[in-house]
Amino acid sequence: MLKRRRLLFSLLAILPVIAIFAFVRVYPISEILRLSLHKWDILSKKKPFIGLRNFQELLGDRLFHEALFNTSIIAFGVLLITIPLSLVIAALIFHRTRSRFAAFYETAVFIPHVVSLVPAAMAWKWIFDARLGPLNAFLSIFGVKPMSWLFDPVLSIICVIVLCSWQALGFAVLIYLVGFKSLPVSVYEAAKLDGASGRQSFWHLSVPMLKPITLYVSVVTLVSAFNVYAQVYVLASDAQGAPGRQVRVLVLDMLENSFRNYRVGYAASEAVVLLAIVLLLTFVQFSLLREKRAAR
């Protein structure tokens, strides 16, 4: 009887949280799924059910393919930069925790993560400016000619990857620092007695033991990078000032189809595809971690 009361009390305690989560997360996702199966536009009163026709149209949409390709390049580029770099930075900060500047290092690395996206993108837009930007001024010292960073399609993608990696780095370093502080000191002491160097301890002890942290950071980084929007909107405007035209990404393509072309159902189908990609990549990452644990 007492167990039932405790169980009932626990359910009642978490019920408000479940209700809020369902309203904020589950309901919007179910609504998007419903919209993707209808020819839904803002102007028309009729919203006919068309099944998978929106998804069939996506297969032949050149702009959607371009947006999906650019988004994937940005997401995996950010992942490949953020994970190793944040791990190395976290290791350097952790091994200097006795320094009086350790708190300063942690704060300096984390600040980009809490800075508002639009001001940060505007600052980086000035850095990448072809005429007045300090990046071209710095490269000119080494004889490199000025480059149109924000008006070349390939260079624009690189600029977006740099900005997104800079912003994601602080969170990843913070999580890795928590992971480093939870590692058993006795293992490192034993490795030191066996003659292992600091570099060997890092590669053969720290990196394997931090695999669950790496999984979490990689999932969060990849999901955030696939939802890139504000960085592209501000940074990669074309010569006429149209936002994000140099780098077409999925979220911008969705917004354009929804509010410029009034094709809400079609945009919802793009959102479903994005959700499916993120879920698939997350499943693959978790599966790889389980396989490595099983191999042990």
Describe this structure in words.
The chain has 296 residues and is an all-alpha fold. It has one domain (61-295): MetI-like (MetI-like fold), CATH 1.10.3720.10. It has 13 helices and no strands. It has helices spanning 2-35, 53-59, 62-94, 102-114, 117-127, 134-140, 153-182, 185-193, 198-209, 211-226, 230-235, 250-259, 264-295. Helix 1 crosses helix 13 and helix 7 (153-182) packs antiparallel against helix 10. It is flat. The two termini are 43 Å apart. Residues 239-243 have low confidence and may be disordered.
Can I get a quick summary?
This is Sugar ABC transporter permease. The protein is mainly alpha-helical and 296 residues long. Helix content is 74%, strand content 0%.
- Largest sheet composition: none
Q: Number of helical runs?
A: 13
Q: Given this structure, which CATH class is correct? A: Mainly Alpha
What structural class results from the helix and strand content?
A: mainly alpha
Mean pLDDT: 84
- The count of DSSP E runs of length 2 or more, i.e. the number of strands, is 0
Kindly provide the radius of gyration, computed on alpha-carbon positions and rounded to a whole number of angstroms: 24 Å
Low-confidence stretches: 239-243
Proportion in helices: over 70%
Strand content: under 5%
Report the principal-axis shape: flat
Distance between termini?
43 Å
Total tally of structural domains: 1
Tell me the CATH superfamily: MetI-like
Instruction: State the CATH architecture.
Output: Orthogonal Bundle
CATH topology: MetI-like fold
Protein name: Sugar ABC transporter permease
GO cellular component, one term: plasma membrane
Pfam family, one: BPD_transp_1
Family: Belongs to the binding-protein-dependent transport system permease family.
